[in-house]
Amino acid sequence: MEQIFAQYIKEGQMTVSNMVLRNYSKLGLTSDEFILFLQISSCLQSGKDFPDLDEIGHRMGIKNTEVYDLVHQLLAKKLLTLVPVSDASGKQHDRYSFELLYRKLSALLEKQGETKKDINEQMQREQVYNQIEEEFGHPLSPIEMETIDSWLKHDHYSAELISAALREAVLGRAYSLKYMDKVLLNWEKHNIKSAADVEALQSKRRKDQGDDDGQGQAKKRGQANQPHIPLYQWSQRSDSKLKGK
């Protein structure tokens, strides 16, 4: 048992990205080609630039001719290449490389990211449409849809910010996109980019208004606590004294 464990440690480990594991079929790899990719990758990671294909065929349990056919398929699909490298003595030899496979994987993942982004943007756009139609009480016209699309694509207003502008319009009983556009432009001037920014601005305004009201009430209370001085009596007394003199 100890010998087996020692051999296990000696053989080492190979690493393969989960991205390759999850997307190999989308890269155009068959199951046999993927197993060959793993076998060659294992050899490359252990320092063998040009693996023994006969040995790999034995590991895979297939004929040598089948292994060579699989290699040619990978070369034809431009997933595997042979690149010249130099050893320590300066002697050149070929080396297997999967650089093109990883480049194709990168392009695939980037395209998938763009697709997910497009789907999310479409869902957000539909959500904004539905919210406005529900609050305005009528279906949106093509021009209104174009205006909303312009907010999202050209002005880069987020869906949540447009929803916040819709709430302002409803509270103000101004059921029009023109009113919402004015609200959005005003927020843009104040660098408001999210619903949280809107709430922060409104909280600040409420606080400032409360401070102003508090100062006004304090001023009134201060005036109320001051003694009442009937100025007209002073003037009457002054007149009486003058007349008496």
Written description of the protein model:
- The protein folds into two domains: 2-97, Arc Repressor Mutant, subunit A; 113-209, Orthogonal Bundle (Arc Repressor Mutant, subunit A).
- The protein is 71% helix and 5% strand.
- The chain has eleven helices and two strands; from the N terminus they run αααααββαααααα.
- The chain has a two-stranded antiparallel ribbon.
In brief, what are we looking at here?
This is Initiation of chromosome replication protein. This protein is mostly helical.
Task: Please render the helix and strand layout as text.
Layout (H helix, E strand, L loop, with lengths): L1 H10 L6 H6 L7 H15 L7 H8 L3 H13 L4 E6 L5 E6 L1 H38 L5 H12 L5 H13 L5 H13 L5 H31 L5 H14 L1
Antiparallel strand pairs: 1-2
Strand residue percentage = under 5%
Terminus-to-terminus distance: 132 Å
Q: What is Rg? A: 39 Å
Instruction: Count helical runs.
Output: 11
Domain count, please report it.
2
**Based on DSSP secondary structure assignment, what is the total number of beta strands?**
2
